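Technical appendix A lists one of the benchmark inputs used to test multi-chain prediction within the project. The record comprises two sequence entries:
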Amino acid sequence: MDERKDHLWKVAQEAEERIEDLMKAGSNPVGLDVGTSKVVAAKRKGKEIDTGAQLNAFIPVPWSRFTETILGQNEISYYRENDELIIYGTATEKFANMFNANVRRPMADGLINPKERFAMPVLEAILQTLVPKARAQGEILAFSVPAATEGHEAQLTYHEATLRRYFEGLGYKPVAINEGLAVIFSELEDNNFTGIGISCGGGMCNVTLAYLSIPSMMFSIPKGGDFIDASVASVTGEQETRVKVIKEDGLDLSKPPKDKYEKALRIYYEDLIESLVQKLQQSISQADKLPRSDRPLPIVIAGGTAKPRGFKEMFEKALSSRSLPVAVSGVRMASDPLTATARGALIAALYEK
Amino acid sequence: MGAETKRSEGSGGVRQTDHGAGVRRRPVAIPSDPAEFLHALESVSSGIRDPVAKLRFIRTSLSRYKAVHRVVRKVPVAPVRRVLYHWLSLEGLRHLLETKAVGPSGLNVATRVSFAFGRAAVMGLGLIFGISVGVAAYRHMRPLAAPLMAAPRRVAAPAAVAPLPDPASSVAEQGTAAPLTTAGVAPAAIWLVEKGPQWELYSNGLRIDTALTVKGTPRSFRVFDREGNLEPRVYNAPVGLLFHTSESDVWPLEAAYNENLRGTSQGLLRYVQKNRLYHYVIDRFGRVFRIVAEDSKANHAGNSVWANAGRVYLNLNHAFLAVSFETRWEGGKALPITQAQLAAGRNVSDYLRQRYEIAPEMCVTHGLTSVNPKKHLIGHHMDWARGFPFAVFGLPDQYQHEAPSVALFGFDYDDDFLKVLDQPWPGVRAAEAELSREAARQRRAVEDVRFDRQTAYDRWIEKQQAGYEPGPNAAAGEGSGTGEAAVGRAAASTSRPEGLQ
């Protein structure tokens, strides 16, 4: 894993390219956050960064001419697979609620789902909606990958290689970037890319500690939004999709829970954060080498799972109960938690250009 | 959790943690050098606003770390090391600017200022280095860089400073004390033997270097009679010689100082030429340089008075030729010129006296003629106010000559004058005696007589300026006034009261 990333994350040799070349016609680097729950793409549009997102999910429905016509009229992303229509992307959630069924995901725990036969075709279809073919051969596309979890190293290799091949097929020169580092790139520029970046996604939470953009430690835990949804669903008897809607519909962790769903959500959020902080303490304590800095490090949190109000305070509370080997200057949320990883990947792509 | 921690080592910026000690917040002690480098890197990086440019700068700088550190770590002084690291970081930024990887607008004001200052410092150092190389090359390219040794070092060289003849001794006595000018066969006359593009050789051995000769204001002056009448005749030929010292830097006359000796002479010659100060300069090796053409005025005498044979000369820039010895007078208690200068000076004097039929009594030193017209004091400049070897030059001892500035114009001297000379030269005493006699004849106080004559001087000067010849301070643009004033630093030590205390 590390070896394959070396071309990107080892110290650059010489970077003499002209940044203005990036703005030339046909040159359009892309940053991509390939997350378990969502796929977010970021591109430069003039001096601004333009982002787009798709739900990384699908739901198969039986084929009928009528259904296909309706889907086409409503501009819903789908494709036909034998006697099934595969509805994918953002519209999936509506159909799942409509049919009171759970959505299916091409990815699980941050990686391509090996148990899902439609995983790669659906993922490719979703990616196609965000990433068109490269306008010029060799355009840089930086895509996020998680840090490997124990026992899943081979799966991560497959995941990364598969995506890389797919993007190469579109004419891109793909480079992989760790999710946590991408958060650092997008959010810790003022700190010279020094600090701890955390991405709390659907499948897992990724953490990276970097000093001057060089990652010194990275890890992930296999808990994310899906873990919370599944856990709450199992104890409340509700569909995961429905739990997800409740979770994303203005959940406030700083206030006392109003019902059993919120109560369960709070419990599993606390569990996730506790696991995250515990692992953070453990990883830093066991790390052979850490950044040399007399200054305390900032922590920035991104990702859809971290969006509910009160998440940061909950994290701070958990952090304060433990003593880290490095001083922490503060915890803050990313300016836009959903797009932070994609924006960081775009910075990596622009750098690689 | 079943999660695995992935670790990668960043270059620079890593340190060991103490596993056994468990959790701790204090950073482990780190070597100073990387810390200094990283601090400089962070300092410069903070001034970059564009994230991609910043990332590029950081990564590029880190890739250069080993090469930079290898050199800078040898600097023993920590502050200098820190400055070097900072400057090298800025240089890294310059590289990115040149390749347009970072635009100027991508930097904040402080970084832009720091960058500009760094560039200015580099240019300044480059300029200094270039000048140093240029000077070294110039010195290397000059001919005869190696001094010729006339004798082995173990043989003591003759003393460069000869004992001073007693000013009170007679001309004859001084002449016998200087056999170098009397021994051998002297030519019947002095004539031009040979002339090259930049030199002239005369029959008395005088060789004049003419490479630096420049023209000045054509000579033109009128003369007073002793009654104060400005004669109508306008003279174009010099009527006198005025001897000066340059008051420039003086190095020991030793081979080890050869380059200093030559360098100082070159600088003096350029200065004299630029300000048209003297007609002739005799350097310490006895080389004679004609700087101001003989038919031109030189700015050498300033406010000055001389009289001879019933004629009175005020402000001698026009009437007198200037011969300056490269040396410092230093109060005239010892002869401040070299043997070579002495011989060359005699040859120049002989040549000029013969060519322009200058009377021996009209060959005098600057210190004997210089006055302060506002305060009516003698000795405003004092070079050769004592100790000029008139006898060696075959000239009458002008120190015995009644000082015209005192006798005719009642000029006085003050304590500053006496601090330098202890007592005025005999000619001043003789003039004062004449004033006393005149006061006695008029049955007036000496001071009243002085006052009358000082007032007369002022009228004569006005008449001179109104009549024909501009005063010493009137010739704008030519270092007017005094050659001494133009020499500035050179004359400072011979002028009172500023110079000698």
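Chain B touches chain A through 48 residues (CB under 8 Å). The first helix of chain B runs from residue 32 to 45. Comparable benchmark entries are summarised in Table A2.
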